[in-house]
Amino acid sequence: MQPLRIAVLGMVDGNGHPYSWSAMFNNYDKETMAECPYPAIPSYLAKEPVENLHIPGASVTHIWTDNPADASHVAKASQIPTIVSKPEDVIGHVDAVMITTDKGHEHVERCRPFVEAGLPIFVDKPLVDNEPDLKQFQRWVRDGARIMSSSCMRYCKEFMPYRTSIHSLGQLRFTSITTCKSWERYGIHALESIYPILGPGFISAQNTGTKERNIVLFKHRTHGDVAVIAIDDMYGSHGMLQLCGTSASAAVTAQDTFYSFKAQLEAFNSYLRTGERPFPFQETEELMRMVIAGIRSREEGGRVVLLEDIAAN
């Protein structure tokens, strides 16, 4: 197989994915990575044996960041050979692009040149945070664009047993999941933690919190009430899952960040090779409706928002 060439494009405040994701394809320079402004990244990379770092069959060959100084440091740390002066410069030189920013309202314009060029795109979570942009991505995918987006929490290994089966818990009556940071940027981490367990069928959302303290209650057609909590400074809570059923309950916390990220990138790599999506785009659509419904409910005084009213096909 010819190695796939991937471009990493974009870097915003609070998000170090260009460092970590590129290192998982390319390996990394330990001395330079030690200077990464996100200390958790060199910490979890250092725990992995060298042979576990590299995702075979692809490498990050090009990088662009919003601040040019960031690109130079990421390229050195994650062994990326080519820095470009604008994102569009990678067209014709790579097989796919990764949009490594997590501000959903920017993603349509960041993706547009590459959709028009016919390049496959991985978009960091959340794909969008508003209805007009969701409609645009729906049109692009319907017209054949190869776009994939997910949270790494979809691949969290600690949650895997419950994605296989929740039969031992009886009928679920209540589920909860927590995260730190904002609903707009991190709510999707919590949502995509539970979605592979509960499956499609979310009906409504009600956010009784504030911009800094989002308390969102969802109704699921089969699995009852689901509380999704995103509080800005609640850093000790990321990925705490609770499943409560009629026969038993379970509580588990996400631990292995490296595993989740690598599995997510391997899924994209497989999508590039086979053309087969690791999960239907309809799941991403429903998750984005959940993100948007949480925002809309909060902004409208805690009103119950029906998901079917958002970006319906």
Automatic annotation (TrEMBL):
Residue ranges occupied by any Gfo/Idh/MocA-like oxidoreductase N-terminal domain in the UniProt entry: 55-141
GO molecular function, a single term: nucleotide binding
The organism's place on the tree of life at top rank: Bacteria
Matches recorded under InterPro entries: Gfo/Idh/MocA-like_OxRdtase_N (IPR000683), NAD(P)-bd_dom_sf (IPR036291)
Gene3D superfamilies xrefs: NAD(P)-binding Rossmann-like Domain
Protein name, entry field: Oxidoreductase
Organism name: Paenibacillus pectinilyticus
